[in-house]
Specification:
Order of helices and strands of chain A: EHEHEHEHEH
Strand content of chain B: 5-15%
Number of helices of chain B: 12
Number of strands of chain A: 5
Largest sheet of chain B: 7 strands, parallel
Structural class of chain B: alpha/beta
Shape of chain B: globular
Oligomer: heterodimer
Helix content of chain B: 40-55%
Structural class of chain A: alpha/beta
Chain lengths: 130, 312
């Protein structure tokens, strides 16, 4: 069997700070994953439609504009609506610690805050992907 | 989920899952492809190849939009290289096509080469078939344009478009062996750059020198894809080529060749896998290699024996 882990790295909302997302994308590639990098300023609908067509195992959301409490749960909700129940959703960016429990309750598996070694992200995905 | 039923009933989720089954070689993949096969052969397949940075993805996006304007549905298979070191890949073609990703008449799938030497593989061909069965009128295969993959794409497409770009150092890219023989049309993208005249003339010269004076004469078009310039002419050229192939019976011929090649490749693949499973990896085999190295036996006889055993 030739299974590879496919990860969608996406930036929802109005946020153009993509350096972090690109660093993560490269790290995931170096770890042997196939990374679909879709860039900035996407709607949750675009992210989920992409996740569907690409049949990804993981959706990795990057957001530095503060809209995570609205947009991250929206992505989780739309994924479920489309029947993508086995997709692991993770997030990163500028996310206050106090917001993390709420996001996890809304279905985001975990949040990687600034300073997290990329190897942590890789290990988490390997351990939790379905 | 009945994946085959889903694909035929135009479920995007089923179509996506079908492609994954083929890519990851799931046990159900063979059955899925066998059942879908009779529903294929309808789509017109366009191959787009060229050097990295030529603007293939942007062109694919614009060409797709033009086809949508003409009432066609489009499937896109966008291929990027797998890193030979990590086995991973950045599939970054889709980023140029984000606005069409919400169009119900478009389906885009990114695929990594996963070590396939030619860049394309049976898996690519199967993904194309799945999109064909799903109902796409046009399917575009967009590839990494390096080395062997250019030749591969001809085998998979009805019309092959080579994308060139001015000023990439060596203006004689067009001379690269194989490129001229495979292009049904040539598109010089980023035509606002310095050197566009030069590359146009050189490509024309090379086409003259190739001596193919009858039949289809590959046109050379200029585009600035990012500005949506020159796209209509390119799509017209693709349609012209399609018309030519149909009227001359060339399309039937091409597709017959493709089917033949595909069947043979599948048979070869099965035999090779069988050999790897049964012959290589046995202790006997390791001893054989040692004996060969000591020149106690010779590989010609060994090969005959191996094949003789298998064929029995």
């Amino acid at each position: 069997m030739e299974k590879r882990i496919r990860v969608l790295v996406a930036k929802p909302g109005l946020d153009g700070h993509d350096r972090g997302a690109k660093v993560v994308a490269r790290a995931l590639r170096d770890a042997g994953f196939e990374v679909i990098y879709t860039g900035i300023r996407l709607t949750p609908e675009q992210i989920v439609e992409t996740a569907l067509q690409e049949d990804v195992n993981v959706v990795a959301l990057s957001l530095l504009s503060g809209a995570h409490n609205t947009l991250f749960p929206k992505v989780v909700e739309l994924l479920k609506e489309k029947g993508l129940n086995d997709v692991l959703v993770i997030g990163g960016g500028v996310i206050p610690d106090s917001d993390i429990p709420g996001l996890e309750k809304a279905g985001v598996a975990t949040i990687f805050t600034p300073g997290t070694p990329t190897s942590d992200i890789v290990e988490f995905i390997k351990k939790n992907v379905k | 989920m009945d994946i085959v039923k889903g694909v035929l009933e135009k479920s995007r989720l089923a179509t996506s899952k079908a492609i994954t089954a083929v890519e990851n070689e799931y046990p159900e993949a063979a059955e899925i492809m066998s059942k879908l096969y009779s529903h294929t052969g309808k789509a017109y397949i366009i191959g787009i190849t060229g050097p990295p940075g030529a603007g293939k993805s942007t062109l694919t996006d614009k060409i797709t939009k033009e086809y949508r304007n003409r009432g066609k549905t489009v499937g896109i298979v966008a291929i990027d290289p797998t890193s030979p070191y990590s086995g991973g890949a950045i599939l970054g073609d889709r980023i140029r096509m984000m606005d069409i990703s919400m169009d119900e008449g478009v389906f885009i799938r990114s695929m990594a080469t996963r070590g396939s030497l030619g860049g394309l593989s049976q898996k690519t061909a199967d993904a194309v078939k799945i999109l064909d069965a799903y109902g796409c009128d046009i399917i575009i295969i967009e590839t990494v344009g390096v080395g062997q993959s250019e030749v591969d794409i001809v085998k998979n497409a009805d019309t092959t478009m080579v994308v060139l770009v001015p000023g990439l150092g060596d203006d004689i890219q067009a001379i690269k062996a194989g490129i001229l023989e495979i292009g049904d049309l040539f598109t010089i993208n980023k035509a606002d750059r310095d050197g566009v005249e030069k590359i146009h003339i050189e490509t024309e010269m090379m086409l003259e020198l190739s001596g193919n004076y009858e039949g289809w004469r590959p046109p050379i078009n200029r585009t600035i894809a990012s500005d949506n310039e020159g796209i209509v002419a390119v799509v017209d050229a693709i349609e012209e080529h399609g018309k030519y192939l149909r009227e001359t019976g060339e399309l039937e011929k091409k597709r017959k060749e493709r089917i033949k090649d595909e069947l043979l490749a599948m048979v070869e693949d099965k035999i090779t896998r069988h050999i790897y499973k049964t012959v290589v990896g046995s202790e006997d085999f390791a001893n054989t290699i040692t004996s060969l190295q000591k020149r106690e036996i010779n590989p010609y006889t060994v090969a005959d024996n191996i094949v003789g055993k298998i064929l029995k």
